[in-house]
Design brief:
419 residues; Aspartate Aminotransferase, domain 2; 14% strand; Aspartate Aminotransferase, domain 1; 45% helix; binds 4'-deoxy-4'-aminopyridoxal-5'-phosphate; 4-stranded antiparallel β-sheet
Length: 419
């Protein structure tokens, strides 16, 4: 028996001891793929990994040496539960790029924005509370909302982002059922998984609805600075300081390995958030924060973000032209930044059932159902183009087309026979 089998058996002994909420922790569709797609012969268009090799190693080495000589002792020590004040000040400048004015008092550093989402969910969500979210929505956030036993109500989303009309309807529907709506969760720019950006026109409309209905907005924005042609519209938080909690991250514009994200929250919520942060982790990583702070003060970080933009633009183009070449009939979003394409398959094809066939053809993607809390999205799939080379993206989409075209033919044959 190997180590993991041994561990699995031991865990079984404690099944009856788990808290009820532990049942909400199931292996996600994205996680389940990781063991397969790490095989070198598989082109993975699945996990949303940044292409960290576009960041020169020497730059990080220099940053490390500079940081250690200036703040090495602090970097090895516990720090403030709210986060390093020097870094919080630098984050103000970063957020100003999207129109946000903020005070360092209102910024809380978290262990990636994933942890920010978890802390906020812990502060706000009781069993059965409603979270409104785009349809589709980020799988990692859905996992957290599920863990806090909330109900996720997806709201119709098109190429301009979440629909204000559909949002009003969803609110009315939830209210008619006597349910408590706690917040609206949005990935406003180059969304994961759809690649869609909420239009400038809709931003104030969405805020107006939420203000009127007294619904808090969680604006999750890890991709906003990774635009290809023109900057994204100003952040929701720049238009509403009281009703919006903003989440940012260094994972996509620098590296995810430091695990540093941040939350900008109205003062009352910020105070609770600091307490929750301290209770969970005492303080965010001193080492990671100080590395990032040193990087921001000494490196050409805007130039580096430009480099990332160039890399991802080239890969987006490779993905779109491969879709056009091999799967021209399929509906696909056309992202202006970020990592993701969202593909609609012919009605009747189940992307989750198709995945083993695709892996057999040595290509992987993420099935659409991962991005809905209600089991829908069967004929959708997410392609992540951030990590493979443009050549491999082409090869991967060609393989995917073989699988999809075969499925489509089978479906047509069966439906002809049935009619
Ligand atoms: N939000 C979104 C929309 C994401 O795509 C991700 C990472 N995939 C996160 C939050 C979490 O990122 P991190 O914890 O690395 O900051």
């Amino acid at each position: 028996m190997n180590d993991s089998e041994q561990q699995g058996n031991n865990l079984d002994h404690w099944l009856d001891a788990y808290a009820d909420r532990a049942q909400t922790l199931a292996v996600s569709e994205v996680r389940a793929l990781f063991s397969v797609v790490s095989r070198p012969e598989v082109v993975s268009l699945a996990g949303g990994m940044p292409f960290v090799s576009a960041l020169p190693q020497e730059l990080l080495q220099q940053t490390y040496e500079g940081m250690m000589s200036k703040r090495g002792a602090l970097a090895m020590q516990y720090g403030s539960g709210q986060g390093d004040p020097v870094l919080r000040d630098q984050i103000r400048d970063l957020m100003a790029l999207e129109g946000i004015t903020s005070s360092i008092e209102d910024i809380v550093i978290t262990t990636g924005s994933q942890h920010g989402l978890d802390l906020l969910s812990g502060l706000f969500l009781d069993l059965g509370d409603v979270v409104l979210a785009e349809g589709p929505s980020y799988v990692g956030a859905l996992g957290i909302f599920n863990h806090y036993e909330a109900h996720v109500e997806h709201v119709y989303t098109d190429d301009a982002g979440i629909s204000p009309e559909a949002l009003s309807e969803a609110i009315d529907r939830m209210k008619a059922q006597g349910r408590k709506i706690k917040f609206l969760y949005l990935v406003t720019n180059f969304a994961n998984p759809s690649g869609v950006t909420l239009s400038a026109e809709r931003r104030p409309q969405i805020l107006e609805i939420c203000r009127r209905e007294h619904i808090l907005v969680l604006e999750d924005n890890p991709y906003g600075l990774l635009y290809f042609d023109k900057p994204v519209p100003d952040a929701l938080r720049s238009m509403d300081e009281e009703g919006v909690i903003y989440l940012g991250s260094f994972s996509k514009i620098l590296v995810p390995g430091f695990r540093v994200g941040y939350v900008l929250a109205p003062p009352a919520i910020r105070d609770k958030l600091v307490l929750a942060n301290e209770s969970a982790i005492l303080c965010p990583t001193s080492f990671g924060q100080m590395m990032i702070s040193e990087y921001l003060s000494t490196a050409d970080w805007q130039g580096q973000i430009d480099t990332f933009r160039g890399v991802y633009r080239e890969r987006r183009d490779a993905a779109l032209s491969a879709m056009q070449e091999y799967l021209p009939k399929l509906e696909t979003t056309r992202p202006d930044g970020g990592f993701y394409l969202w593909v609609t398959l012919p009605e009747g094809i189940d992307s989750k059932a198709m995945l083993p066939l695709a892996v057999k053809e040595l290509v992987a993607y993420t099935p659409g159902t991962a991005f809905y809390g209600d089991g829908t999205g069967q004929n959708k799939l997410r392609i992540c183009y951030s990590y493979p080379t443009p050549e491999n993206i082409n090869v991967g989409i060609k393989r995917l087309a073989n699988v999809i075209n075969l499925q489509t033919e089978l479906l047509e044959t069966f439906s002809k026979k049935g009619s």
